[in-house]
Amino acid sequence: MIGFSFGVAAALCWAALDVVRKAVAGKASPSALAVFLLIGQLPFLAPWAVYDQTWITGAAYWPPAVASMVMNAVANVLFMRSVQLSPLSRTVPFLSLTPVLSALVAIPLLGEVPGSMHWAGISLVVLGALVLNSDLTDSWWKSLSHEKGAPYMIAVAFLWACSTALDKRALGHASPASHAFLLSGGSAAILLTWILSTGKEGELRQLAEAPKGLLLGLVGFAVAALALQMVALQWLWVAVVETLKRAFGVLGSVVFGRLFFEEPITSRKVAAVVLMVGGTTLLALS
């Protein structure tokens, strides 16, 4: 239950981070906000890595770690763009595809083959997402054309599914502290290089106009979410971690979407939350 507790704590922090990302999304370009988010974590993750003193234990760390850095860099930009275009409660639920994708990716990468209870819990969480989005158009798949941010968020789901499995593979050759620091630093370096090489450095100046409180919240929740997830991966399967993130992410999108963005709570949203709570409970018991 220790690992599950860390997984739930990480999921709650990711849910809060989703809300802050939505609030700050229109204040600067997606790429500039993603760079700030990643670089802002380094002053907090560096002391943890230094205190841990484990660092890298083998060269096999680098292939999965670098691949995860690239995927995280791209996913952060796409996430910001998605929530700029569509309501939080209509885009974040698409991330509920991540548990299924991560479960499939983890089979060849990590040898993690989910049992019946795992699949039942994952299925309930995904079903909750389907119910939540069933009012967009006649079918869930048609909702892709209804919400402009949906394709971006589905791409994020795929990238995060792969990167989490790669993170766990990398953690076989590094401590959670060192990998969290290198992951954020490497992803930031990739994004910053792209911005400078394409002559878009002017976008970085937009950050000066963004509310400082939101920027601090962005970094604070990101540090907590990433650190807790790295620790949780020491105990939990990738599919379980991602399912917890998505369940609490959808719950957060409904609750916080209502509190901060005046998005209505409908019967479909309530039904979706019930299904996801059921799915999370099955994972806790499996």
Describe the protein in words.
By secondary structure, this protein is an all-alpha fold. It has one domain (2-285). 75% of the residues lie in helices and 0% in strands. It has twelve helices and no strands. The longest helix is centred in the first third of the chain and has 24 residues, at 62-85. The chain is globular. The termini are close together. The model is unreliable at 136-140 (pLDDT under 50).
Count of helical segments?
12
Helix-strand category? mainly alpha
Oligomerization status of the protein chains? single chain
- Mean of pLDDT: 82
Count the E strands: 0
Query: What is the end-to-end distance?
Result: 11 Å
Task: Show the helix and strand layout.
Layout: H1 2-24, H2 30-52, H3 62-85, H4 88-91, H5 98-110, H6 116-132, H7 143-146, H8 150-170, H9 176-197, H10 212-232, H11 238-261, H12 267-285
Helix pairs in contact: 1-10, 1-11, 2-3, 2-9, 2-10, 3-8, 3-9, 5-8, 5-11, 6-11, 6-12, 9-10, 11-12
What descriptive keywords fit this protein?
single chain, globular, mainly alpha
Concise summary:
This protein is mainly alpha-helical. It has helices spanning 2-24, 30-52, 62-85, 88-91, 98-110, 116-132, 143-146, 150-170, 176-197, 212-232, 238-261, 267-285. The longest helix is centred in the N-terminal third of the chain and has 24 residues, at 62-85.
